[in-house]
Design brief:
By secondary structure, this protein is an alpha+beta fold. The chain is 27% helix and 41% strand. The radius of gyration is 16 Å and the shape is elongated.
């Protein structure tokens, strides 16, 4: 059941992961991170696949994909974000939606980390 859609989803997930690794050369973590996997710096990506939502079509769902970029000491966060949008937008069936940018204070420090959450959408057909 839903084999074509599953194949397409896996191809998209692989392309997103590989696109980030190949283009930016930073650590990329999917969904969860255990404490022993924590990167030594705050320059890395998290990929999180969101919930499914129904659409106007009875056979199509919408899923949000969150690419969370954590950046330490990068004065060019905005231009870097533009490059990430371009890279992920090349993945077939994945569309850019919006970003959410935050500055987070590091624990026990006066330093800050930029966190940019890039939100993309993909449509997924399903059997019903």
């Amino acid at each position: 059941m839903n084999e074509k859609s599953k194949e397409r989803m896996i191809k998209q997930q692989t392309a997103i992961y590989q696109g980030l690794v190949n283009e930016f050369g930073m650590p990329v973590v999917e969904d969860e991170l255990s404490s022993d996997e924590l990167p030594s710096t705050f320059n890395h990506f998290f990929i999180v696949y969101g919930d499914f939502q129904k659409t106007d079509s009875a056979t199509v769902l919408l899923q949000e994909i969150y690419i969370v970029y954590l950046s330490e000491d990068n004065p060019e966060v905005e231009t870097f974000t533009l490059d990430v949008i371009s890279t992920i937008s090349k993945v077939n069936g994945v569309e850019f939606n919006r970003t959410v940018k935050e500055r987070l204070k590091k624990k026990d420090s006066d330093d800050y980390i930029d966190q940019v959450t890039l939100i993309f959408n993909r449509k997924v057909k399903y059997d019903c």
